[in-house]
Structures are given as structure tokens and as C-alpha cells.
Amino acid sequence: MTDPRANDQDDFIGGDFIEVYPDALDPAWCRALVERFAASPDGRPGQVGSGVMPDLKDSLDITISGRPDWRDAEGALNQAVFRGLMRYLRRYPYALIAPLMLETPDADGTRRRLTAERVQTMDDAALADVMQTVFRPGAINLQRYTGGRGGYPYWHCELYPRDPRAETLHRHLLWTVYLNDGFEAGGTEFLHQHRVIAPRTGSLLIAPAAFTHTHRGNRPQGGDKVIATSWVQFQRAEALFGG
Fold it and tell me: Which residues form the Prolyl 4-hydroxylase alpha subunit Fe(2+) 2OG dioxygenase domain (predicted)?
């Protein structure tokens, strides 16, 4: 016998939860950011959770968040990610509502449980308000991977429990903006989904941060690969629930 509830969920299941949004940022803006990165003296060897380990990750990084000289770039990237996240949540509303039992007011002010159907029909302003209540941006890294050598070949996810304040366990989604192309290989490869995302200048990748989306950054060939990357994080409990 067919479950009559099954069709109610058809719009919210399926897919691999990996979304790519082309032209999230203007290619000319991306090229300018690549040049700015190249001219900066602030690049440092990229780190993994245990520190600098070039056999796992070989890159040159700049963390731009919180730096006055990079505030404009941080703002532009966060705005582009916010727009992409809104699209992502309309397709996968349970990324917003499954972890929390959210309530929002109706037009008459009555508070009502937020459902997947309501997320899909909310106007942008209302959805943005909920998103800002639940989520916050992570620190943004610019990363350059040298052609033929650099990469992040270690299969990894974005969650790990080493941080005493559990900041790394607040990561819900990962994102990457590809700032250049014009090289071979160098894609973001997802292990269980058997999918490789080819870098395209200005495109935005969003995917879950947990082990289900274990991934690696393959080595670029014939040119350097430059990205901006971070996470969509939950607000801390004291911000969400008080105390």
C-alpha cells in the first residue's frame, strides 16, 4: 500500500546535497582578488586541524575575516554566500528546520511551527531574518594551490572535536568560491557521491560539512588554483537559546 504522506515530501528529497551556483561573483572581481592575494605579503602555509602538514594540504593561505584591509572582500564574499544559501535552503529546507524546532509568526502574528513548505514560500526578507537568527558566517580563508604540487589530497570532512569551545562542531555547511580557472584537474572531489566539481571562476559550491560529504581538493595541473572558502555555522547555544 502506498504511503499517502510520501508525495508530500517529494520536493524535499533526492539529490546529493551538493549545489553549485555559477556566476555567484563577477569574474572580473574574482580576478582582481586573485591579483590582490598575489601582491599580499600575508600568505602563510595552509593548516589542517593539527597544524601545517603539507603532505595533507599544500597551500598558501590568508585568513581575511576581521582584518580591516580585507573587510570589503569579506563583505562581498559573505553577501554572495548568503544569496546562495537562500537558494540552497529553498531546495533543502530541512537543512534549516531539522536541527531546530523553529516557530515564526504568521501575518496575524500567531506563532506557528516552521515547515518545509513554509520555507519554500517565505519571501526573501522573512527567510533572511530566520537565516540570520540561526546561522553565522565562519572565518574566510583565501587559498592558493600551486600547479603540479599544491592541493588538499587528504580525504576529510569539516567537523572535528579538537576545539575546546566546539566552534568546529558548529559548522553546518561548507562553501567554496572558485576565484580562477584556466588549469587542468584541481576539482573538489566528493568521496561517497562520486562527484568532482570543476572550478569555474565566480562559481559557488555549497555542501554539508559532515562525514557524509567527505571530500578532497585535487592538485591543479598547468596553473595555480585560487579559492575562497569557509563554513555556514550555527549560532552558539547562548545566542539561540539564551543563558
Answer: 141-232
- Which residue blocks in the chain are alpha helix, DSSP H? 27-39, 71-91, 94-97, 116-121, 124-134, 237-241
What 3-state class would DSSP assign to 73?
Answer: helix
- Contact (CB, 8 A) for 235 and 136: yes
Place of cell 561517497: 192
Per DSSP, the residues of 108-144 read TS-EEE--HHHHHHS-HHHHHHHHHHHEEE---EEEE
With 0-12 / 13-18 / 19 or more C-beta atoms within 10 angstroms meaning exposed / middle / buried, residue 57 is buried
Nearest to 92 by CA among 187, 165, 12, 202: 12
Tell me the pairing of strands 220-221 and 184-185.
Answer: antiparallel
C-alpha span between 58 and 54 (Å, rounded): 4
pLDDT digits (tens, 9 = 90+) for 73-89: 999 999 999 999 999 99
